[in-house]
Structure formats: structure tokens, C-alpha cells
Here is the input.
Amino acid sequence: MTLGETLFVRPPDPRALLVLAHGAGAGMRHPFLQAIAEALAGQGVATLRYQFPYMSQGVRGARPDPPAVAVATVRAAVAEATQRAPELPLFAGGKSFGGRMTSTAAAESPLDRVRGLVFLGFPLHPPGRPGAARAAHLDSVTVPMLFLQGTRDTLAALDLMRPVCDHLGARATLHVVEGADHSFGVLKRSGRTNAEVVAELASAISTWIAGNSQLATRNSQLVTRNS
Here is the structure.
């Protein structure tokens, strides 16, 4: 599959690269993703953002691509990231729909070189229809996963999200953002700003990536010594 336009943000001396997919209703240039990319760059994490085909058509209200097309796009983006920075530890994920399509791809077969998945608001269920069926495929994901979820997220009730992560065991890390909705917006009365939330998200992602990069390196060294 041919990948369309991408946005590559590489800070000086990056220590990892995150392939970052957009949500269902907004493309890779959405202000939230732009803010996340900039905040991660400040933490030494490069990002590669890309578009799913339906969003590239520029048609307002277009329906998301079928899973097979989305999965192929995820794999093309991962391949592009490998070409851009083959020396960097690679991670993948995205906002809502983009994160779920990334995990769907990883569940079907491992994403080449990807050491872990990052979900910015995993869409566990539709609004007002609580359930955990969308998480079933996560059992087949073999790499570590970071779930960043807001306490006011109407697409992922925490009383359902917590058991999902508990079931996944050591592969799953859950970071809860107090007062945030599915878009990680917060109410004025919370006393927090959206910029502070973005900074929290970037710090959590950066710390988790650093830990998993080191773990993967140690495991690789152990395999080399024992071979």
C-alpha cells in the first residue's frame, strides 16, 4: 500500500520514534495531535503522523476506512518510520480510532520492529453502550501497551477499562488523566488547562517509552549472549 502525506517531527538527539495515527473525526493536523507531537519532541521522542485514506479524500463526514484498509495503512506507516529512522526504537499507536486500528494490526501479526503500543483514549465502546467487546483482540497483541484514559471519557468507562488492563497483565499500563474527556479536554472548574493535560500525557508516554526501550535492549542483549 502506498502511504500518503506524513508529518515527521524529529527533535535533536531523539531516543525513540512514535508512529501516531489520528482519530476517526479529525486528521493528522488536528491541534491536539500537533500539541502532543511538539510536547513529545520536547521529551526527546520523535513522531510520524499520517492519514488514513478516507481522511485524505478531504470529504467532510467521510466514514472511516474498513479495518482491512486501515490495517494496511498502519503497516505502511510503520514501514515508512523504519525507513526514516532505522536506528531508533519504534513504537506505534494513536488517538481513539487510530490507536484501535494499530492494535488490530498488531493482533493480526506483529508490527515489524514495534516495541510497544500507545493508546490516547482507547475507544472501548460507543457512547452510552458500555461493553468490552472491542478489547477482545488485545489478547493477541504480544508487545507492551500504554492506555491513557480520561475519567470523563464516554467511550471508555473506567470500571470496564480497569478490568481489561488487569486481564492483560504485565503487558498493559493504565494512566488515568483526572477530569479529562475522550478528547482529553478538561472543565474550567478543574483548575487545569488543556496544555497541562498535554504535558502530562507527553510525560507519561515518554517515561513509558524509555522504560520499554531499555527493557527491549536488555532482552536483545540477553538473547545475543545466550546464542
In short: The longest strand covers residues 114-120.
